[in-house]
Each structure stands twice: as structure tokens, then as C-alpha cells.
Design goal:
Elements: E1 3-8, E2 11-16, E3 41-46, H1 51-58, E4 61-63, E5 67-69, E6 72-77, H2 81-84, E7 89-95, H3 99-104, H4 107-116, E8 118-124, E9 132-138, H5 144-171, H6 178-185, E10 189-190, E11 198-200, E12 208-213, E13 217-226, H7 233-247, E14 252-253, E15 259-265, E16 268-279, E17 284-295, E18 298-307, H8 314-325, E19 328-329
Parallel strand pairs: 2-8, 3-6, 3-7, 7-9
Antiparallel strand pairs: 1-2, 4-5, 8-9, 10-19, 11-12, 12-13, 13-18, 14-16, 15-16, 16-17, 17-18
Helix pairs in contact: 1-5, 5-8
Length: 335
Amino acid sequence: MNIFFVKTNNIYLCFGVLLLVLGSLSLSCTKVPPNIGRSRDIVIISSIIDTSLIMNNLQIYSYLPQKEELFSFLFVPDISIKKFNKFHTILLYGSLEDEFIRILLNPEAEEATKSDTFSLFKLNNLWSKGQLAIILAVSNPDYIQSGLIKYKNMITEILEDNYYLRVKENYYSNGFDKKLKKVLRRFGITFDVKKRWLIDSTYKDENFIFVHAHFPDRSVFFYKEKIKEELTTSFVMNKRDSLTNKYYNGDYILKDLTYTEKIEFKNMKGIKLNGVWQNDSLVAGGPFVSYFLVAKDTIYIIDGMLFNPGERKSDYFTALKVMINSFKLINNTES
């Protein structure tokens, strides 16, 4: 079996199955098994594992606000591929002197690696359904470090996008609360809200509603008003502080840990806030993300926040972003 690939921006996008895979890498014509592993798990396979090289170049850190590693790397020698080849995300790296690399590449891919010195291959469903496999091949072992550094930005971007997709897949693996979604439509919005979330519409007459869940504590609020001034960094920070001070019992932004960017979201332009909130009276705080969006003469604010002290936050916070990305404005006249 051969592979077919095209080269785009120095990365080979492969379609089909790699060359005949022998021994511990054997594939059959049976149904491709499902993948395994947590969203953040990434299996790293090589004949000689350099953990520092991988950690220093491919690890992404989130500040929520404590420093947190986004990925959990599982370092595996190439002789143990069979035990780990069902994981959903695998990075294999090595040179043409490595037998497992030569087995994976067909003659065309091998020649491309010899010619270019470095080659990066991205494949889907190699050993399991829904799997992402990245193969970094170099012509000589001496080029492994320089090859990984050359492609590190591309690899981390692929891995980060893939992590988001894994969290999204998990988020959508269970059903949603159709009744709650129907209630939200009365306010001119919809979200894909999971079951066991609650809605608080106490301040609906003030155009403020929020949904929330516990274990850990998460919430997403929606607010709208007629815009009366230009959308600026100071405006959006002050507006969020005024809303959360009133409706969230005194929450406020830690401005030194909050960053803004101009965005276009759901065909609306606006400003996105990523940062940290705090509440002195409750002795609480955590990460938040806010979207300030303008359509005609109205500003729409959608905001997600998390409180999970002393525990990992990345997966829950990313799931909040998945939820917010499902946001849609609708007409109340829609059925």
C-alpha cells in the first residue's frame, strides 16, 4: 500500500495508508479501532527520546492564572509502538537510519526526506479512528534537533488545534439540554448547553442572564445594550467590571493579567478579553474570556468564567470556549 501526499507550506498532507507496516506496526483490513486517551495526551515516539527537546519546544503553557501545561506527553521508545498506537494523538520523529521511520515512509516520501533534509507528515486515522499522527523525518540523526526546531511552530499549532477539537468532541459526545436551549431562545440567543446546567434570569429585564454549573463552578453570561460610545479597551474592561460587580457579587478584572484583541466573531466585529477575575469578599478568582460584539447600534457581551481552585483548569476552560463558540443570535420570532 502506498501513500499519496502533497506538499503545502513545507508539510506533507498524507492521504490513505502509509507503506506496508510490519511486525509490531502491522495493520489489517479489519475495522479501524477507536482511539483512546485524554484530550491532552500526546504520545511521543522515537528511537532515542529527548524529553528536554520536546518539552522546551512543543509544550504550551496556559496561565489560569497559575502556570499550567496544556499537553501531557507520554514518551515511548519505538520498540513499544504497538502498545501505544491507539492513542488519539501521536508524534513520531527520527531519521532515515531508524527502522521504524523507514517502515513508515514509502520510497517517494523517503526520497523527499533525503532531498529536503527534513520532512513533516500529517496523517489521520493511521492506527485508530479519529487519530492524528505527525511524523517528523530527517535525513540524518544529526538533524533531528534542528528539524524539530524548524517545524516547532507548525507542530505546536497542529497540536493545539487538535487539542481544542478533542475537547470539543468530548463536549458534544453527550446530549444537550433542549429545554434550556429553548428557554434561551426567548432572549434572542442560543447555546449548546449541556445537561445539569441551570439558568438564572433574575435580571432579564435588565438584559442580563447567565447559565451556570458546579463541580467545578462555571458560568456564561449574556448581556446587551445600545452602544453609546466607541468600543475601546478601557470601555470593555470597565463595562465588564460594572456588570460583574453588580450581578456577580463584586467580581473584577485583574488588569495586569488581562489581554485584549480585536476580533470578528459570528459576522460581528468587536474585542475579546482573556484574563483573570477576582472577588475579594468571596476570596475567589480564576480565568475568564469575554466577547464584546457590535451589530448595528447594539453591543452584545458573552462571557465565560471558571472557578476551580487548586485543580487543572485547561480542559474545563477550553470547554467553556467551545460552548461560547456555539453562541448564535436569533430572532425571537423564530420557532
